[in-house]
Amino acid sequence: MKESAVKKIAVLTSGGDSPGMNAALRAVVRTANYYNIECYGVREGYNGLINNDFLKMGARSVKNIINQGGTILKSARSAEFRTKEGRQKAYDNCIKLGIDGLVCIGGDGTFTGAKIFNEEFGIRVIGIPGTIDNDIFGTDNTIGYDTALNTAMDAIDKIRDTATSHNRVFFVEVMGRDAGFIALNSGLATGALDILIPEKKDSIDELFAKFRDAEKTGKASSIVVVAEGEKLANVYELAEKTKLTFPDYDIRVAILGHMQRGGSPSCADRVLASRLGYGAVTGLMEGQTNVMAGMRSNDLTYTPIEEAIKKHNEINEDLLLISKILAI
Amino acid sequence: MKESAVKKIAVLTSGGDSPGMNAALRAVVRTANYYNIECYGVREGYNGLINNDFLKMGARSVKNIINQGGTILKSARSAEFRTKEGRQKAYDNCIKLGIDGLVCIGGDGTFTGAKIFNEEFGIRVIGIPGTIDNDIFGTDNTIGYDTALNTAMDAIDKIRDTATSHNRVFFVEVMGRDAGFIALNSGLATGALDILIPEKKDSIDELFAKFRDAEKTGKASSIVVVAEGEKLANVYELAEKTKLTFPDYDIRVAILGHMQRGGSPSCADRVLASRLGYGAVTGLMEGQTNVMAGMRSNDLTYTPIEEAIKKHNEINEDLLLISKILAI
Amino acid sequence: MKESAVKKIAVLTSGGDSPGMNAALRAVVRTANYYNIECYGVREGYNGLINNDFLKMGARSVKNIINQGGTILKSARSAEFRTKEGRQKAYDNCIKLGIDGLVCIGGDGTFTGAKIFNEEFGIRVIGIPGTIDNDIFGTDNTIGYDTALNTAMDAIDKIRDTATSHNRVFFVEVMGRDAGFIALNSGLATGALDILIPEKKDSIDELFAKFRDAEKTGKASSIVVVAEGEKLANVYELAEKTKLTFPDYDIRVAILGHMQRGGSPSCADRVLASRLGYGAVTGLMEGQTNVMAGMRSNDLTYTPIEEAIKKHNEINEDLLLISKILAI
Amino acid sequence: MKESAVKKIAVLTSGGDSPGMNAALRAVVRTANYYNIECYGVREGYNGLINNDFLKMGARSVKNIINQGGTILKSARSAEFRTKEGRQKAYDNCIKLGIDGLVCIGGDGTFTGAKIFNEEFGIRVIGIPGTIDNDIFGTDNTIGYDTALNTAMDAIDKIRDTATSHNRVFFVEVMGRDAGFIALNSGLATGALDILIPEKKDSIDELFAKFRDAEKTGKASSIVVVAEGEKLANVYELAEKTKLTFPDYDIRVAILGHMQRGGSPSCADRVLASRLGYGAVTGLMEGQTNVMAGMRSNDLTYTPIEEAIKKHNEINEDLLLISKILAI
């Protein structure tokens, strides 16, 4: 093997946390250790770079975390890193410590920071997509997405029990400020009557038409899954409007909220995180920079960070049709 | 065995549904079947009595439901059953069918209906405590309570992951309009910093004192579990007030909501439901009436319905102290 | 849309059951219903074709099954269908009923039967890959594989708790007679010290070398995940041999067994099953035959059944290296 | 409050581990801390006393463990502690450190050791029942039992899926060498056709009679739950004998094994562990010794260790009858 392009790397988690970040961190640390690259953990995202909050990490530093939700490095959004002064401080600290490569685990915002940092100071950076929203281009799935889907689905399955027992209509809000992946997939998986997501133009009349169709087929209870970022209306407004038109309906609202970010990662997420953690370190070693490690159809790929941020995984139109057909 | 006091019984589920109602129903139907008592299911609670919505049930009618949340008989609150006319209709339907015993699975409201019905018309009734709230006297646990505790706990464990990763304060509302059992036990089980329940007088100053103590011990994230029926303030108000006093805190709110009512029942709930379903039918056969079947320290007991409604399981004061000591 | 190539289809599940078969069945039935194709369920796999055990299915026949493990049509291996006479009977029954398309949900054996049936009698067949083993070419994942991974992982996580508490070595057998996918992925996800699978040549010396390395790094407990079809030795033999060489080790064996086939399907499996059920019916309508519906990198694909049987998804060599690096 | 009878205590976990041991440990440490009692953790059970392996513990030493299976102190069976010399060493180490009270978390064997140690050397001891077997007198439930029930039940639910899909008979072995609590309750909760436990005299003819009855009622698949300690035969022998008499049956065996000891504790187990950990420390403070802290019908009780070991919770005869009636 030719010489590694990096000798001493740092790793951080930033932005909203997602299940599997710890598994990714473990993979980064142990891969570095295996290839004799020194490795430092950075606490609380980019703030840790600025505040010189580095932590030397060896193979045992990451034991027993592969199955833990959250991130032991903690995460934060950093206002200071958005300023040139902040980034200068961060760079100075890296230089002082001899850091020549940086692994950034997070989403859009995290990657934007990494890209600017690389372009300003030339330090090698590589991204690992860790977010439950799955809205990152360059990887089939982001780390945490699969776990969040199962969490949302389990919760909706439970709501279904009580909805059916009482002939109720439930509006369930799931996470996804800009992306409907969680809503679409968890809705399909739970037989939701309708699924409202920001990527498509929804109308209240179509929703009401579905309620009327459901009545005709004898469906006595219904669940409508709504992405956080839905533009038509939020779950409370939807419930109100529905009540006005269907005064006999017994309507409830549920907001699944932050529990979707936690929990022990699924097998798929642990495997994905392990592969991407490994891929990030070996990528840096091979000279990659300003790219994101991703997995497409079971193959490790590197996508320029710029592309990962700008492009988006498209919602599959088929899924919308299928969910409509199957929720009959 | 002497002759059974009943020959043909009906069973209904009423009020808010709870996990294990199906397991109780299964036990009622199969116990009746075993002792050659005819058994009818009544749909949608007391409404089914009024609307003559009976369903003959045999051993196979209840197969594959022991592990299902909700209630296949469906549940409802019945305004009409609160009127004398409604109850008269219900009684007439029972007489027409030859029903001489009624098993009512539900909570306070269900039992009140059963009691009045028995006192007015003399028909034998027996209650089975099915509610997640555990606020029924005469049984250590109500059916569904244990499952709801685990559901709430699992959700709070997940919230804990993200709270810790971001150094956040979470106010989590759990079910319990009149009773703090779910809040107290799920809060204790998740190491909540504070637990606010309707049974004790809470003050915002005490809560704030706990935040200050937590800061001193270096606790960076906290969860406060709040019962739905808490009198001091709801979770949104608590979050706002806290923000005013602790402007640096990153505060979030989570309302666990109706998912707490659903899900496959826990082993304890399935066993409890099976024993009470059996106990209700054998109780009716032995001539019991106007009582509730319950389980106290592993023994089947019958408590007058009046007592079950009027008295309440007291919150254990020790638990409050213990939760305070352990959440250090 | 041009005219459908099929008017009346039948659907069956065959071979070992897997979580998500019901979700696939639901998708087949409802998609057929949506496009006005008559649909029949066949009971107990190919036996049902031979025994004329057809069941007319409409949209409501498949309600409340998307979240259920197993298969409501039941599954079986059919010796009679392996004979020409058996297949003739099956074909005669199809013709009598007017079946012009057959959806076969299962694995290798199921597809072989479908292929021969198609080639002998010309009846259109399409396969849906339903098996936990993931050993089918033409789809990234088979239906049930993701759920089985999570089930195996959860069990191994639990075993890890007790292994760590007692400094024990556990040999854990997971399913996979010919394929190591479950072993490799669940082993990677649980930090197994070693993973033994039929696709690679294992030696007892390498295993023992890993035990010695683990001792050096201070690892006091270890888990070795072994695929059912491992050629070196089975878990009991491995435990014995290890005991001879490491007499101080406290060694235990666990065989996860059939629980890996059951359980409510994961979100990924429900979505996959829904898409493939839809794809199978629309495929038949468009004139596809003797192919299998699969999903590759989020796209619906049709692979000739012959290819699906003959080729195999290869174990990713990277994964073996990664699991070795990360289990340090 | 009068002066505490102890000033410096030690706590250990011994014997087979059970979910909730960590929660009990947390409660012991934090209660001691709250009342200004110094507290030491002892590693690997009684071995730690002998090997002088003490660990000073404060409130933060036990953070984030309430939800973890296993025991961070590790557990072991100690041959040396069964000798007078071993116990003398243990006592000398306690004296050197100034330990005047010992909390022993475990089962029968653990308590026997504690009792002898107390009787020989006078050091105050108190037991906390931590075992999944529930075979300890003086408490309604032991710590870990409820979690183990849910683990066994979930596994059997999954096995049920595949049993039903293939019309199979499964013999499922659950833990319980001397006690049938897990078998009886998990079997009742999963509708097992028969439940074989060491506490009752089983006969193969009765079992076969149940198979014949099941056939008559049209039951196509069956699960028989067998306790590890069943005297009639083990699961493999039962399967063989059944095959001889019912050659058409498709029979499988499953041994749930050590996964029953692990996993995150249920809410009931965390609450029980918290209360008993608190009760053990306050008991020692109040002068209790040679007793076990237990919970009966929601009340904290202290039972002489001798009684806890000698007496046994009886299997409830009703449960056997109920399981028979309900598995129709």
From TrEMBL, chains A, B, C, D:
Its main location: cytoplasm. Belongs to the phosphofructokinase type A (PFKA) family. ATP-dependent PFK group I subfamily. Prokaryotic clade 'B1' sub-subfamily. Mg(2+) binds at residue 108. GO terms for cellular component: 6-phosphofructokinase complex. The gene is pfkA. This is ATP-dependent 6-phosphofructokinase. Substrate binds at residues 131-133, 168, 175-177, 228, 252, 258-261. GO terms for biological process: canonical glycolysis; fructose 1,6-bisphosphate metabolic process; fructose 6-phosphate metabolic process. The keyword Isomerase does not apply. Its EC number is 2.7.1.11. Its cofactor is Mg(2+). NCBIfam families: PFKA_ATP, PRK03202.1. The active site is at 133 (proton acceptor). Catalyzes the phosphorylation of D-fructose 6-phosphate to fructose 1,6-bisphosphate by ATP, the first committing step of glycolysis. Residues 8-282 form the Phosphofructokinase domain. It comes from Chryseobacterium culicis. Allosterically activated by ADP and other diphosphonucleosides, and allosterically inhibited by phosphoenolpyruvate. It holds the Pfam family PFK.
